Amino acid sequence: MARSSFLFTSESVSEGHPDKVCDRISDEIVDLVYREAKKTGTNPKDVRIACETLATTNRVVIAGEVRVPDSLIKKDKNGHDVINPARFRSAARRAIKDIGYEQEGFHWKTARIDVLLHFQSAHIAQGVDNAADEQGSEGAGDQGIMFGYACNETPELMPAPIYVAHKILELLAVARKAGIGDAGKLGPDAKSQVTVRYVDGKPSEVTQIVLSTQHLDESWDSKKVREVVEPYIREAMGELKIAEDCVWYINPTGKFVIGGPDGDAGVTGRKIIVDTYGGAAPHGGGAFSGKDTTKVDRSAAYAARYLAKNVVAAKLADRCTIQLSYAIGVAQPLSIYVDTHGTGKVDDEAIERAVSKVMDLSPTGIRTALDLNRPIYAKTSAYGHFGRKPGRGGTFSWEKTDLIKALKEAVKS
User: Is residue 6 annotated as part of the catalytic site, yes or no?
Assistant: First the structure.
């Protein structure tokens, strides 16, 4: 039986964290290729991107394999087609500038950027493309397991600890970029951590708050940083109470002036728990950033969240975990698993049958239903891929709750 009273902790990291800088650059590459496909009349379904980024002191390395429109290709000195690095370097510089890095050790203007992208492996391509010929639908870009989760702890149907941890950093980033008071002297790099006490299975109060944030004024100490950030932390809590004996750890090591990739190297895909549910739900292990949506690590995780969120929004359960599994080159999932953790209003088996009725879970079906073949991914690279508001232009389409009626009808049939 699940415990009803306990402490649970989740962490988040800001857009200026070294790993998140890399996630952002990788997702800017995804968006660049999708935009270029639309501009040149290339079918966006043919786009393929598997892009990894490494960042360290004034150095960025972008590597991976792609299939891109001809406008992103040039001839080398031997007359062979190669990826043209210029546009990719520009995308990386724009991302670094937007995040806010203009430090001696990491500056958007002066950082050396190496682009080591090459064309997609023919053996990987055949697994996806040949499946479309044989099955009428693209095969999955790889094998793997993906999870989606939703719960009724917040209006966004996210676990409270990760939602609040994200919100703290998001509010600080907005204030920093707007230059509001002393918040304008904060740096881009930051980490948060929030511990929530649950009573009778519901979030009751916050018992511990951890925040480490870069600051550009070297005279600041932990006390000064707390003075600057505390109003934003309290705002992020919303209706969630801060316990009277809550323990605060604000910049517990003291000064934090050297931040970002100058302070610690970053790599794409190292913050997958931050990207999802803060440890409150399982994770299949695959990162999202830098991947086109034939990669089910990304698209099927979005689909699983979409379905789980709609299950909870339909009040079929208070909590819902959905697992999907795939094999490379095979279109339909090998398995669908639903667990409502004892909160379901109908049998979990009925929900399993219903989710496959209301959505085609092949890569083609997911991309079509959620309109994923578009440049919407840079915004996902910080503050979570889930629990965000769907926006114009198709951003966060997997956060819509437009399957409620269909699911209610499907569980009855």
Answer: no
Beta carbons of 232 and 175 less than 8 angstroms apart: yes
Point out the catalytic residue in the list 88, 147, 256, 396: 256
Annotated catalytic residue within 28, 297, 318, 399: 297
| pLDDT score of 330 more than 50 | yes
32 contacts 87 by C-beta, under 8 angstroms: yes
Residue 120 has phi, psi (to 5 degrees) of -60, 140
Give the predicted TM-score (pTM) of the model.
Answer: 0.95
Concerning whether 291 is annotated as a catalytic residue, the answer is: yes
| 8-state DSSP, 391 | -
Per the structure block, which two tokens stand in for 279? Answer: 């440890």
Evaluate the CA torsion angle 170, 175, 179, 182 in order and state its sign.
negative
The rounded distance, in Å, linking the Cα atoms of 230 and 12 is 17
177 is catalytic: no
Q: Provide the 8-state DSSP code for 45.
A: G
Q: Which residue has the tokens 């939703």?
A: 150
| 22-31, 133-142, 261-270, 271-280: segment of lowest average pLDDT | 133-142
Tell me the residue type at 176. R
Q: What is the largest CA-CA distance in the chain?
A: 70
Q: Are 386 and 277 in contact (CB under 8 A)?
A: yes
Task: Answer yes or no: 265 catalytic.
Answer: yes
Per-residue model confidence as pLDDT tens digits over 148-166: 999 999 999 999 999 999 9
In contact, 390 and 397? CB cutoff 8 Å: yes
- Helices 348-358 and 296-313: crossing angle, nearest 10°? 120
Q: Is 154 left (phi over 0), alpha (psi -120 to 50) or beta?
A: beta
Which residues are paired to 197 by β-bridges?
7, 205
Q: Which of 177, 162, 260 is nearest to 212 (CA)?
A: 260
Q: Which long-range contacts (CB under 8 A, 24 or more apart) does 42-47 make?
A: 42/69, 44/373, 44/374, 45/138, 45/364, 45/367, 45/373, 47/292, 47/373
The Cβ of residue 285 has, within 10 Å, a number of other Cβ atoms equal to 11
**Burial of 123: CB neighbours in 10 Å, binned 0-12, 13-18, 19+:** exposed
